[in-house]
Amino acid sequence: MDKIMVTGANGHYGRGVLKALLNNGLEKRNIYAMIRDKTKASELQSLGIHVVFGDYDDYDSLLKAFSGIDRLLFVSGSDVRNRTIQHKLVVKAAKNAGVKHILYTSQLHKSDHRDSPIYFIIKSHLATETAIMNSGMNFTILRNALYMDMLPEFLGKKVVEDGIFLPAGQGKIAFTLRSEMAETAAVILRSQGHKNKVYEISGSSISFTEIAQKISEIKGHNITYLSPDPKVFINAAVKKGAPRMLIKMLAGFAQAARIGELDSESSHMEKLLGRKPAQVNDFLQQIYS
């Protein structure tokens, strides 16, 4: 049986993949979790799996961690500024350690152009995908949609009182549950037929107009949706005390949605899971009822 490793194993997504592997009967002795912080090993160790240490900034630690691993789920890092350099180190270490098949969590997108509103996010993913495809290792690229779990961040804490205020126009986003994305990655890790493929891991798409209509239905009164100019949105949010970096990121994703960058009609996830992914309307019902 192949030895499987998940990086970023202390994160919600990484833990979700590990638990999905265990829930589907994969033997604990064949599962490896890589973490950066040694003080946070206890929860994973309690699962009975192997826990190893590796840092995306430390090539030698990565080479040691990946030694003997057959299938590697490479969870993308969160350091956007340094991510391209870090990721190339990961790919180099995986190749030199003899990893046979690498899976990578990329970002759902339609355009590779520099003028994309989310180029600042996807440029490191594009560089990583290229490095992986040129490495000679078998690969599977998971172009993950935006987490449905983050939808309340887009809507704001006072959405019921103030409505939705985002520069997304009538664009749609394929919001998808993080837990189901993790489950999908686990399916790919423990099955065959995924070599050298690119999958869009996404649920069904929805607009903020439709989201406003659904929350209106749940709450029993009208929830407005206004799509302002991006600069107006950023200035208004910052004036209310929101962190500028977070708001610029939300604005970028909203503008990307406006031009169709985050929409998806892919059936990849449904076929891999063997069922339809969770719907945004059901998620909204749970959150706002």
- Taken together, the total number of domains comes to 2
CATH architecture name of the largest domain? 3-Layer(aba) Sandwich
Major sheet description: 7 strands, parallel
Order of helices and strands: EHEHEHEHEHEHHEEHEEHEHHHH
Low-confidence stretches: none
- The proportion of residues forming helix, as a percent range, comes to 40-55%
CATH fold group of the largest domain: Rossmann fold
Rg over alpha carbons:
20 Å
Beta fraction: 5-15%
The name of the CATH superfamily of the largest domain reads NAD(P)-binding Rossmann-like Domain
Number of helices: 13
What is the CATH class designation of the largest domain? Alpha Beta
The shape, in one word, is: globular
Question: Which oligomerization state do the chains in this entry correspond to?
Answer: single chain
- Terminus-to-terminus distance: 46 Å
**Can you list the strand order of the major beta sheet?**
3-2-1-4-5-6-9
Which secondary-structure class do the elements indicate? alpha/beta
Q: Whole-number average pLDDT?
A: 96
